[in-house]
Amino acid sequence: QVQLVESGGGLVQPGGSLRLSCAASGTILSIYTVGWYRQAPGKQRELVAVITTDGSTNYADSVKGRFTISRDNTKNTVYLEMNSLKPEDTAGYYCNANRRVLAKKYEYWGQGTQVIVSS
Question: How far is CA 18 from CA 13, 32, 103, 106, in A?
Answer without folding.
Answer: 10, 24, 37, 29
